[in-house]
Amino acid sequence: MADSDGRQVDGVNHATGKIYRLKLFFNNEGKELTKEEKQRLRKEKKQHKKNKKDDKGPPEKEKEKEKASVPAPSKPATQSPAHKAAPAPVHASESAAAAEKPAKSKAELRAERRARQDSERTSKQGKKEGGQQSASSKPKATPNELQPVVKRLPEHVQVDDPAALKKLAKKLERQQVRQIHSCDLPIVPLRSDYGYKVSLFSHLHQYSRKSPPTLQISIPATVIHPSIVRLGLQYSQGIIAGSNARSVALLHTFKQVIQDYSTPPNEELSRDLVNKLSPYISFLSQCRPLSASMGNAIKYIKKEISNIPSQCKEEEAKGKLQACIDSYINEKIILASEAISKYAIEKISDGDVILVYGCSSLVNHILCKAFEKQRKFRVIVVDSRPRLEGREALRRLVKKGIRCTYVLISALSYILPEVSKVFLGAHALLANGYVMSRVGTSQIALVAKAYNVPVLVCCETYKFCERVQTDSFVSNELDDPDDLIVTRNGKSHLENWQTVKSLGLLNLVYDVTPPDFVDLVITDLGMIPCTSVPVVLRVKNVDQ
Amino acid sequence: MEERELVEYFRAQIREDPDVASAVAAIRSLLEFLKRDQSETILGLRENMTKAIQRLEETDSSVAVSSGGELFLRFISLTSLEHPDLSQCKNVMIERGELFLKKISLSRGKVGKLCHTFIKDGAKILTHSSSRVVLKVLENAAADNKRFTVYVTESQPDSAGKLMAQKLHNLNIPVTVVLDAAVGYIMEKVDLVIVGAEGVVESGGVINKIGTYQMAVCSKAHNKPFYVVAESFKFVRLYPLNQQDVPDRFKYKADILKTVKDLNQEHPMIDYTPPSLITLLFTDLGVLTPSAVSDELIKLYL
């Protein structure tokens, strides 16, 4: 759907999209809006949005009726100069908001858009009969009405729904088009899936490590900051792994980005910087889906940026933001782990046999601290393929001098009668008390429960997320299936797995553990039962 | 006020009014200590209070005294934050202390009022050892003209169950004393189990006289509701993972802790019942599920 400039412009069926396009067209005509005009435009947009929300019901019907009538008169509308002319109003509010815009653009674009909406709607209706795609369209409408704490289903989770994929592509494009007006190449590439996906998980992305997203980026990457590109590459290749490591790396990279940022003329730092960060975040989530901790960190940064007063000078603002990021890392990650170690050490008594799984930076820190405090205990490290992260944990603990045993997860029920406590790390703690962690964690918790061994989960509060999930299918991450190929004695049996049509390799990354299997959660706020996570979230929201 | 005097005052409180909860007596003594305290600074005052609480814990090693003392200390710290001037602070503290004391003296009545509606006419109730709160609940139910029978366990080693049976007999409630070992035998006959608590821990579990855990496991196996009645000042910031994790200073009586060297030979007086076995907790803050206890504790302490 091209407008008179021949440039691809989107049509999205809500106020922002419409007005965005109009603004773009306006910019394209060479008229530079001053700061005040932009602020006024923004106010009008807000007003428009509010009005649109109020009469959301009737306008749907109104639009249908008007669609039939409007395209006819607006099509022959000639190229009149930039002036307010209104042959075809849709809503009184819309026309008021768009009072300054040239009528030609409004009418013509509206006509094009309506025609496209028609086709989209019919295709969507057909889809809706299937029934399963209602989720993809609902989230667009609901976030405005529900409280801000409800998180909508992220678009990238609906991989097998072509409409959602299209939406994601449009979103990515929109973000770039906003930045660069002339460039045609996609700056944030859409990574393509690799290999056959097991049907239960076909709604998730499955990428191959051999084709990183950076291959498709144009040079010079003027829209994506080079340190973000580097970070994305590190994520996608698995060089930086572990939720704390990823969050800290992200925050440091954002510090670099803020350092290199300079406000363009006639823009406010508080708004422009947030817009600049959006394509970076899209790029990073294409490299590897964002973790809950990264999501919370990003939310915090965006809030801090938008709270910068407009009269603040640029250097001062940048310095303030850098200090904010530093204090976030210090408080939420470093000091939190000190506090958690303090509580956890109370729970470690002499003669304990502690079981740990995989490599959690927090659990390793706790054990090292406990060892320094002269507690007598020994550790059993449980590991699993294909990541074999337990080896890293083993290395760190043995270096400290702690007595360790190393087993694979298949030997779990054999080793558990010896164990007195299980310490687990977490990737995120969900609002219904479920623990999301590395795949295999729920298995450990289940068997430990069967043997009546207490299970303790250690998690900082910044990893608490407001999502609710009861199973590991609905939202997860699929890693490169080629990791499962093992070469032994020179033979790799699964090498040609793609040629076998009925064979699928599944390399899950996370799983969720129900709260009945977890006895205690140690956070920087203290020791709480798993069911009290929503209480902590509530307390945190009140604080903010 | 000397520490000796404090202990004497505490013991006197318990002697005069055997019905008073030990935590209430402790708080009353601490308030008296506060009134007579001679320190010049707030920090000094707080130090003296901490020492006084420790002294009281050594006298009576029950969990309730510990939790009551901690609550009082916390409440004092909050007050001292608002009024930096010592004399003004002290007056406010004493005034609030009296108010606090009055409130918690009424808490047993509140619990009784909440719980007795759960006892239906014709019910058979099983209880463990001697608890003043359970007695209050049963008293309220009897006053409501409900007919019910009570089974009490003997609760060795101090035979506290027999004392409970006597008190219930005085209220004209039909009561039978059973052996501790007969809990499994009697469980199929009873409709519900009500026990008191010495302490309610963060996980929602309870610490109570030894034998409570057994009763809870039996009632779970028979699908009988297991109710715990406790006042809110018994909420304590412990989080035991299992029986072993309960600190030794609560498990044994105070004098035994001081005199005996090898605790393995002694028998613990309390045990820990995990929250998964408890149906509901009746407190003066309302009727709570075990998971809500943590919520209340966060509100109280954070």
TrEMBL record, chain A:
> Where is this protein localized, as stated in its record?
Cytoplasm, Cytosol
What Pfam family does this protein match (any one)? IF-2B
Amino acid composition bias (Low complexity), ranges on this chain: 81-100
Does the keyword Cytoplasm feature in the UniProt annotation? yes
What molecular functions are annotated in GO for this chain? guanyl-nucleotide exchange factor activity; translation initiation factor activity
Query: Keywords assigned by UniProt?
Result: Cytoplasm, Initiation factor, Protein biosynthesis
**Sequence ranges of Basic residues compositional bias:** 40-51
- Entry-linked SUPFAM superfamilies: NagB/RpiA/CoA transferase-like
Q: What is its main location?
A: cytoplasm
GO BP term, pick one: animal organ development
Q: Which domain of life is it from?
A: Eukaryota
Q: What is one term from the GO cellular component aspect held by the record? A: cytosol
Q: According to the UniProt record, where is the region Disordered?
A: 27-155
Q: What ranges does the record list as Basic and acidic residues composition bias?
A: 29-39, 52-68, 101-130
Q: InterPro entries under this entry?
A: IF-2B-related (IPR000649), IF_2B-like_C (IPR042529), NagB/RpiA_transferase-like (IPR037171)
Function summary: Acts as a component of the translation initiation factor 2B (eIF2B) complex, which catalyzes the exchange of GDP for GTP on eukaryotic initiation factor 2 (eIF2) gamma subunit. Its guanine nucleotide exchange factor activity is repressed when bound to eIF2 complex phosphorylated on the alpha subunit, thereby limiting the amount of methionyl-initiator methionine tRNA available to the ribosome and consequently global translation is repressed.
Q: How does it assemble?
A: Component of the translation initiation factor 2B (eIF2B) complex which is a heterodecamer of two sets of five different subunits: alpha, beta, gamma, delta and epsilon. Subunits alpha, beta and delta comprise a regulatory subcomplex and subunits epsilon and gamma comprise a catalytic subcomplex. Within the complex, the hexameric regulatory complex resides at the center, with the two heterodimeric catalytic subcomplexes bound on opposite sides.
Give the record's family classification.
Belongs to the eIF-2B alpha/beta/delta subunits family.
Name of this chain's protein: Translation initiation factor eIF2B subunit delta
- Species per Swiss-Prot/TrEMBL record: Cyprinus carpio
Automatic annotation (TrEMBL), chain B:
Keywords attached to this entry: Cytoplasm, Initiation factor, Protein biosynthesis
Could you state one GO cellular component term attached to this entry? Answer: cytosol
Segments spanning the bilayer are: none
InterPro entries associated with the record: eIF2B_alpha/beta/delta, elF-2B_alpha_N, IF-2B-related, IF_2B-like_C, NagB/RpiA_transferase-like
The protein's location, in the record's own words, is: Cytoplasm, Cytosol
**Residue span of the signal peptide, if any?**
none
Q: Recorded GO terms, molecular function?
A: guanyl-nucleotide exchange factor activity; translation initiation factor activity
Q: Name one Pfam family in it.
A: IF-2B
The protein's superkingdom reads Eukaryota
Which Gene3D superfamilies does the UniProt entry name for this protein?
Translation initiation factor eif-2b, domain 2, Translation initiation factor eIF-2B, N-terminal domain
Subunit: Component of the translation initiation factor 2B (eIF2B) complex which is a heterodecamer of two sets of five different subunits: alpha, beta, gamma, delta and epsilon. Subunits alpha, beta and delta comprise a regulatory subcomplex and subunits epsilon and gamma comprise a catalytic subcomplex. Within the complex, the hexameric regulatory complex resides at the center, with the two heterodimeric catalytic subcomplexes bound on opposite sides.
What is stated as this protein's family in its record? Belongs to the eIF-2B alpha/beta/delta subunits family.
Q: What does this protein do?
A: Acts as a component of the translation initiation factor 2B (eIF2B) complex, which catalyzes the exchange of GDP for GTP on eukaryotic initiation factor 2 (eIF2) gamma subunit. Its guanine nucleotide exchange factor activity is repressed when bound to eIF2 complex phosphorylated on the alpha subunit, thereby limiting the amount of methionyl-initiator methionine tRNA available to the ribosome and consequently global translation is repressed.
Protein's name in the database: Translation initiation factor eIF2B subunit alpha
| Native species | Cyprinus carpio
